[in-house]
Write a structure and sequence with these properties.
The chain is of the alpha/beta class. The protein has six helices and 14 strands. Helices cover 20% and strands 31% of the residues. The strands form two sheets. It has a seven-stranded mixed β-sheet with strand order 6-5-4-3-2-1-14. β9 (133-138) and β10 (142-145) form a beta hairpin. It binds zinc ion. Zinc ion (ZN) binds next to loops.
Amino acid sequence: MELTVLGNFGPYSTKEGNASGYLVQNGADFLVMDMGSGTLGALQTAVDVRKVKYLYISHLHYDHTSDLLPFRYLLEDLGHTVTVFTHEEDTAWYNLLFHHPRLQIVPIDAQSEVQAGSMRLSFSEMRHTVPDYAVTVRGEKTLCYTGDTLYNDNIPRCFAESDAVLLDCTKPQGFTGPHMTVADARRLANEYPEVRLFATHRSAEYNPTADLADCKNITVVETGKVYSL
Ligand SMILES: [Zn+2]
């Protein structure tokens, strides 16, 4: 099982990398998780898009969804359709993003369990400024991706049941917005030493790599890199 980082920045892409997006490969199956700005190019670098059958969207902020709009042009050109797992919302942005014949929407909630080829997906509610669900991907290994979130009661379960967690935890200590900080990352890494913690969603102005360098089970991910799970 492999994780390719299509983008690791939020709330916008920078000179160093794209906004949020990830590609999971399990055998011959590919799952894209979120599609922020810049990720469409990175996706085409990483894989023949016709092999991608599944997409997961954690929440509807622009830095996780904006490349979904031009992605539809590519799907039209290829005559290719993808299955999209996301929670339902009655908003104009939801309708604009997802109402397209090349996107087959499968609504999910915290009770859902769905199959994405050889991968089994389940979901848990996170805590952000808008609804956000973490996805747990069970394939050769178990990977949890939280989307954007503050620490919440579902996070311990995500760690307990996973080999690796891709976590929104790269804001500087003292940050008060709706994301976890390097202090949260350090605490969780110590609490779950067997779990590989992939730290993501960093800002342009702060690189957490040096501050987390002594936590051996934390990897601060970078756009374009491939990580074996
Ligand atoms: Zn967000």
